[in-house]
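Hi everyone,

Forwarding the result from last night's run.
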Amino acid sequence: MSSGSNRGAYLEAARLALEVMRAHRMRSGLLILGVAIGVAVLMAMVSVLSGLGGRIEDEMTQSDRAIVTLSKFDIFADPTDEALQARPDIDPSDAVALGESCESVGLAEFLIDANRGTVIHYGQERTRPLPLHGAGEQFLHVYSLPVERGRPFTPTEVESGEDVVFLGYGPAQELFPTMDPIGKRVRLGSNHYTVVGVGAERHSLFGGLGDNFAFIPWTTFRRNQGRPDDPYYVYMTVADGYEAGDVVEEARAVMRARHRLRPADPDDFALIENDRIGDLVKRVTAPIGLVLLVLSSIGLSVGGIGVMNIMLVSVTERTREIGIRMALGARRRIILAQFLVEAATLTGIGGVVGVIVGALLAYGLSWVSGLPAGVNPLAALAGVAFSAGIGVFFGMYPASKAARLDPIDALRYE
């Protein structure tokens, strides 16, 4: 049979499938509904998870510009590894050297991230435990932090280690709900600090946690709050006309020279681009997505069993029709294709409906809960293809049964 005849046979099979759907509207509608529900749930979960992953990545990188981070070890490394712990710590002088020696670096800012909660007091008011960072005067620019009032640190305050603090929106609201915090003296442990600036509300995915932070000059941090195990970093912005890869290449050469490493020696530091944060997010969200996919696939498989049941009923009801078609010259593979196309059409329509409903459901959940949603066109196509594949898989046995019917016995069937 020629390819043109095959196409005609498949088109005829699709037309017959639509006629069967019209003839058995209730049965076909329930099957489509079952598949659509499974695909809709899967589509909604994937869309919310995709949007959530992208938003978490944005929140973790914090800056709207490309950032390269110099760290003692990589974000995926085991911090208890003795070989990594033996590496030299990042030093403030590294930030100076990188800023002066690398043309691709816009700003190089030294940062201390304590990774521990700090409570700030003002009179009888106190904050929830919040992360306290030590930074230089350019931290607002590096982090792209909006300022509601006040200012960042001055170079003199950083150089001399002044007791000043920049509060995030959250602690400022907790400590000074009805007054201007600028110029007020707050207490961190046994030390008092003057508030010089307050960050604006950022409407973070993490709610108040995204605005729950405080900065003091890194020199002050080392004197008043520092511990030997505090992690040190250098955050570098990318200069105009360059890319993050250029920063990594230049910074690696500078740091290897500073650490006096020979050509055969491995790096004893890590340079982390923003996209590494994306890898971290994917490591977190990928297992969740896999679990959701497995659970949704189980639901679709249950729908596939319904497809098999309905198709077996359809074969039984149309046994005489199959016999007539065979008597008129229809080959077994055409009969097989007819029922496979019918099953794939039913589940494919259910897939299309499910993708549309799932996308609407995802955006509805986003509107109600505030969680972001991102509908991926490839995921939508995959959902439709998967649902059609379910129909083909579970329709194979009924279609094979129809194709194996004996024409004489089929014609005698009442």
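The chain has a mean pLDDT of 79.

Cheers,
N.
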